[in-house]
Amino acid sequence: MANKSVWSDNRFWQRTAAWVTGFASILLIWLTFDTSAQISMGNDADLKNGVTKRVPGPTVINYKISYEMSTKRGHEVPYIGGNDGKGGSLFKEKEKFFGRDDYSEKEAGDLLHLGKLGSQAKNCMDCHTLMGNGAYYAPDLTKAWLDPAWGPEGSMQAVTGKSTKEEAMAEFLQHPELYPTHARMMPNLGITAQEAKGLVAFLKHLSSIDTNGFPRNFGKIQGALNGK
Ligand code: HEC
Q1: What SS3 class is residue 38?
Q2: Confidence band for 30, pLDDT divided at 50, 70 and 90
Q3: Which of 46, 102, 143, 155 is the most exposed place for a label (fewest CB within 10 A)?
Q4: pTM for the whole thing?
Q5: Is the CB–ligand 1 distance for residue 116 below 6 Å?
Q6: Which residue from 125, 127, 169, 178 has its CB within 8 A of the most atoms of ligand 1, so it is best to mutate?
Q7: Does the pLDDT value for residue 127 go beyond 90?
Q8: 159 CB under 6 A from ligand 1?
Q9: C-alpha angle 163/168/170, rounded to 5°?
Q10: Domain residue spans in the chain?
């Protein structure tokens, strides 16, 4: 066999295929474990011990959550209970949620569960987007809790006649038709007071998840809406 090119050798291609398949399988298995570790939910002890988790435990609803630009990471990052000034959360500053900042792991977990079921039953994703899934008819809800419109600097507390962010949001969710803010209106979905509380807890928890700056430019868009 004189001068047979390697490119026309069947065995060469068979071996290449086997190596590529083997390498890709190992890479995928490694990525699966890496991702599982990144997205597994933390717990109350993590928050109390200052352990940063990409997905904090349910009792994060007892804390104040802020969203600030990280020059190191080049996008906004959620800070839980204050910013330690070194790119991490302080886990100190509490924030009352419907009058309390001492929800137990079980109570907070039950509220989140109720909110999650509510978001599925009422199909928020039909119009909104949560963590990249859903529709773009209505505002992205991934960081809705951090939308300044609901804070002391925004108008929604006055509009709904409530004095806290969570009460204003819960009131809006129960009677959105009474508080139109955009040309597009959210319909009344028959959400009860308890469901609304769960949904707001769900949105607060959602906003505390480190999504690598997604949705992009949320801070700038919200700032622009507030004329900043
Ligand atoms: C039929 C479409 C539709 C469905 C379903 C829907 N919404 Fe909305 N929602 C809207 C529209 C449109 C707006 C913007 C209108 C406004 O602000 O007045 C809105 C606004 C909001 C806001 C204010 C957003 C912000 O950033 O300030 C929140 C919070 C919200 N919806 C939560 C929910 C939740 C939670 C669900 C599911 C239980 C849900 N919506 C289901 C259409 C919908």
Answers
A1: helix
A2: very high
A3: 102
A4: 0.89
A5: no
A6: 127
A7: yes
A8: no
A9: 135
A10: 15-39, 44-225
